[in-house]
Predict the 3D structure of the following.
Amino acid sequence: MNVKKSISTLLLFFFSIILVAQEYKYEENNGIRTFHEGSMFIKEGVSFLTVKGESYEMGLQYGVLMNDQILDLDAKVDSIVDSFVGKFFLKKWIANRVLKSKIRKIEKRMPKEFIEELEGIADGCDLNLREVKTIAYFPQIFFDISCTSFVLRNENELVHGRNLDWHDIEIFTHYPLIVNYHRKGKIPTSILTFVSYPGAYTGMNHNGLSMSINMNGCPIPEGKENSDYNTDMPMPYKLRQVMENADKLSEVDKLFKNYSTHAWFITVGSEKDHSAAMYELTRGEVIKNDINDNMIAVTNLSLSDKGRFEYSPINMHKDWNIAREDKLKELNQKLDSKDLVEKAYKMVSSTEYYHLQHDPYNKAINNDMTVKSCIMDNSNNKIYFSYAERLAGLGRFLEYDISTQKVSIFKEEKNSQTQIDLNNKLAYYKWKKETFTNKKKRDNEYYTTLIEYFKNSSLEPVYKNRQIAMCYTNIGKKDKAIEYVNKFIEDRPKYNSAFDSKITILNYFKDYKAAISTIDEMLKHAILSPADQYYAKIDLLKAHDKLQTQSPDQKNIDKIKQLAKEIKEEANKYFLAKWIKKDLSKIDEIVAKYN
């Protein structure tokens, strides 16, 4: 009798589970899915999701309405994890242990409302809670971002432009998602994100307060750990909390007060204030930078003197930051401000590097790592955006009216030489992977094969000539290497990377006299950031030291001592990170030889 009773109880239990699972089904009419108060439709390949209610209920609607895409992305994320850690059982076991540990640490800092939201997603879709959390925390665990953000204003309007540069997440760009969160009792907020990721890197609430995240690469002081500063909720979830509770900058100030984290820049535009600010959240501190005149803009380098000099080492002042800063200022001055959306579009789509139409090494506002490009129109409650694996600013932009839910095409994909050059580069990567599948030893045959490919390819000349020059270097053909690197310099006479390539080659062949001459030429003619000058002088000092070994001359010693003094003076203007101290220590060792 007890056995029959137990079986009946088990059957009733499983039957109840089936009934609950069957309960969570969406309805679909005219291409719009609905479940409870939530809805979702797909337009132009992008999903637009609206969820309403308390935290758990919003998550439940999310899970039910997005279940098919959540499952599809989950399978893709598994393959990404495999690519990071390999498929070998022990490595995967270790990786999973590490992943669980990292998730637990993040979980401790997550507010209850977001945990409940994730629980709702898990109950609404066919993944378990651990799987949902893994995807929700995955970007914070594995990836770093490098971005551009700015806010423009004129007398009547305010717009917020933003490019998200994020390498190695190409697969996520195939799952673009706009989510309208209507949390009960809070300000409705729209987030530009990816399927399964409920955090906010870019978004705007329906009262016209917009926010975007940039990473700040400044290091923590020696003797400290990230965990000493990251004591509050993860930044992407803090952004959602701020947007759900503020529409003025003064309210943002209060919500960031006593919030502790490290190495983030938060750009905020407020329609109610008709103003903007950029918040530097570093070492547990908050430094606010207000908009000056008609623009505030940030890359991955602080705007404040304290952040820029006291907290940032000189290496952060390299051209991947400085060039974007300079271009943003130039475009702001050059472009007409009557139509701010159009102006912002021209800025986020720019592939220019100073005087060049594009840069092949990711130093432009819109570059090979730009996976999302958008403009948030604070004044008219609209969002203009594009997602792509690379160069998203050149992609097709959609216009989304938050109030009416209307979606239309704002700009068609741009035909650009930059895109053609990138496609040729990607074709080269694919050919190389297929041709050298067995990790062929890098011998003369290997480099000769590459040279033949480059010579017959449609790759852009500057990229092609650099690659050929380096291949000839590796097979010991100095004259040919110099011939092709000189072509690189002739084509880009102000481009510091061209000179860097030649210096590398000359040092390889121990031609230090020629290396010194090339560095001098670079210092005179190339566009150089403070970091570029710093490293050029270090190279120059080392070249004089090597030349002194070959051909002793007091002039080399005098130059070494002069350069050592200049290098230290430059480095000491900024935060002395441990790697900068290591540079200076090696310089001291060189100078000590001649005292």
Summary: Confidence is low (pLDDT under 50) at residues 10-22, 87-95. The chain has three domains: 2-140, 143-414, 420-592.
